[in-house]
Write a structure and sequence with these properties.
It is built from 9 helices and 7 strands; from the N terminus they run ααββαααααβββααββ. Strands 1, 2, 3, 4, 5, 6 and 7 form a 7-stranded mixed beta sheet that branches. It has one domain: Double Stranded RNA Binding Domain, CATH 3.30.160. The radius of gyration is 20 Å and the shape is elongated. The relative contact order is 0.19. Strand 6 and strand 7 form a beta hairpin. It is 45% helix and 22% strand.
């Protein structure tokens, strides 16, 4: 019997920690965002360590984390959540022993993916804003009024058991092209769940690369939604469907 899946443990924890947040841009700033260019640096990927995915960290780190949840919230429900989180850590640690090269193998796949997929996903989603621009000058319409600068794309592997999962965090900022004023600086973090187990996913590296680019495109869409929304979104989950389509939940 499974103790709990990694995604379920994460969802439970995030559900306890969620809250409200203000919009990324004020209403006046959002109205001025008509044409956006997204700039991605070369070599944007930054590996992030999964502290649970090693023989010691999986058990010790998760155990301490579970105790911290109980102590911080003094919530009887956390007594039931804590064993689930500990169980996940134990399975994660075991997976690191049976798949000792999984982190390096994962880096080799996602580093071959084009980060421009993120820029294209965001720019496509924002194209609809052009119709709401006050200016009708054709020459100005061709020039971006806003630039989104991607500082880095952090990638953290999941645990090497059950279906493969990973997390992507994009650090970015929004600037006006005329004045150079920074309108916002933020980070968008998404967790992705594939529809294949670890061994099957890594047995098809080209499919993994294509999927990762689709995930980046979905995150770009999410970032566009954050940029134009009247509130900041708290959680971001994506998943791969059976037909290999990547969707946001």
């Amino acid at each position: 019997m499974r103790v709990v899946s990694g995604s379920m443990a994460t969802i439970i924890a995030l559900g306890m920690l969620s809250g409200c947040a203000t919009a990324l841009l004020g209403r006046e700033d959002r109205a001025q965002v008509c044409r956006v260019a997204v700039v991605v640096p070369s070599g944007p990927y930054v590996p992030r360590e999964n502290v649970l995915a090693n023989p010691a960290g999986g058990v010790t780190g998760t155990g301490l984390g579970a105790l911290a949840l109980v102590a911080a919230y003094a919530n009887p429900f956390m007594i039931f959540v804590a064993p689930m989180v500990v169980g996940h850590g134990m399975q994660c640690a075991a997976g690191s022993m049976t798949h000792p090269n999984v982190h390096a193998d994962f880096q080799a796949i996602y580093r071959s993916a084009s980060a421009q997929a993120l820029a294209q996903g965001m720019e496509r989603e924002l194209e609809a804003l052009r119709g709401g621009c006050a200016s009708t000058d054709a020459s100005r319409a061709l020039k971006p009024d806003t630039v989104v600068e991607i500082a880095s794309i952090g990638v953290m592997p999941g645990c090497a058991y059950e279906d493969w999962t990973y997390a992507v965090s994009v650090t970015w900022r929004v600037k006006r092209t005329d004045s150079g004023a920074i309108l916002a600086e933020t980070k968008t973090e998404c967790r992705h769940a594939t529809n294949r187990d670890v061994d099957d996913w890594f047995a098809h590296p080209e499919e993994g690369r294509v999927e990762f680019e689709q995930v980046l495109g979905a995150i770009g869409k999410r970032m566009a939604d954050e940029l134009t929304a009247d509130h900041k979104f708290e959680r971001c989950f994506s998943r791969t469907l059976k037909g290999s389509e990547v969707v946001l939940d």
